[in-house]
Amino acid sequence: MCIYPGETSTMPDTTERRSFHSYEYLCIKRFQEDVLAKQENTNEETYELWSFVKKLLETMKDLHVSKASGLQGIFWKFRFDKRIATDLWYLAVALDKCPHTLLEFLKFELTKDKCHLGTPLSRYLSRHQFQEIHLDGIFKFYDRSSLPLEIFKCDTVEVLSLKSNSLTSLPPDIGRLTNLRVLCLTDNCLQNASIPFTLTFCKNLTHLYLDNNLLDALPGFLLSMPQLDTVYRHGNHNYFKSTFMWYHSDIHARIRSTSTRDEVLRKQKKLHQPSRLQDLAVQSVIASKENFFEPGLFPGPLVDYIAREYNQYHVCHYCNSAEPLDRSGYKVFTFKTPYLGNTCVPFQHWACSYQCAEDIERPAHAEQRSDSAQLELAYAAYISEVQCTGRPRNQRRKRGKCALM
Ligand SMILES: [Zn+2]
Known about the structure:
This protein is an alpha/beta fold. It folds into three domains: 18-42 and 84-108 and 118-128, no CATH class; 131-237, Ribonuclease Inhibitor (Leucine-rich repeat, LRR (right-handed beta-alpha superhelix)), CATH 3.80.10.10; 240-260 and 275-386, no CATH class. It has 13 helices and twelve strands. The strands form three sheets. A six-stranded parallel beta sheet has the order 1-2-3-4-5-7. The chain has a four-stranded mixed beta sheet with strand order 6-12-11-8, with helices on both faces. A hairpin with an 8-residue loop joins strand 11 (330-336) and strand 12 (345-351). Helix 1 packs across helix 2, helix 2 packs across helix 6 and helix 4 (71-80) packs antiparallel against helix 5 (89-97). It binds zinc ion.
């Protein structure tokens, strides 16, 4: 869909693989803030910056030649003249890396008397149909900002990188990205419950990076994603280590109650506040574990509402009941032996009752014992072979091949 009509000759080749970068996002975010400030008459001055940048770019007859002579240099000149604020480093990078795109964006956005649907960011993403989004390090430590949900509506995205953002949760909207192949969440503050089940809706996801987070096990639903080829989990070691304490324990030790004082408060509140029909409907959609992002299933605003409410519920791994977050339940730890090249990996599931917890744990425990017995047999056979021949089978083969040559 063409969002910016009338733009043709100066456009870069849009058939090439396109990536959306942090500096572009920061520019558009700042632009949005300045538009808002202007609408609220709180800061007229900052908005004028963008008209200035547009004029600057328009005066460059050939942006390729101008770029060679140093658009960044011009930026720094105006920076030192105090016509551009000190914190706009990302504008300097955008002037250098994508002057055409920036000019095209400003030409359209600064056109008066036009009714623009959505946000500037959604228009920008929709126009360029990016295959890769790299938003690494866009939030500072303790920054309360949340990820822009517009990026999850960009359904052409195959690679999404959100490294080093101090993220404490991943929006359920991740499930909208049906073409996603690689998701990089390295260096964040994610815990087990902060990765939503909707990730399983990404049927093409093969590479998941969860290294350097605060996970004490991998989310149990990853076991129902057979297309996953690689799951990076390094850097969660201290947390995983504490979970491995239960490797040799019996079933009951691996089921941990999550009862909280909040539940008593919730029950007291409920006496005066019955559930709304709307909430009950959302609860049942979430409990179905069906992909509610599927086009045509629900109207758009309703999908947005379900996605907004999604993180307010736990879903039982066994019976699929969806329960409010403050309701008590059980954390269940299971071990998969082996899992994607690792000898043994712990997983965590949520169960609504002790019975459900046992029904998850018993078959998983039996499978773990059977798989680890097979691994031990294979390992014993390997040791015995090495002791007899002095080298493992694969090395012997290589030597044999060399001898034949
Ligand atoms: Zn249950």
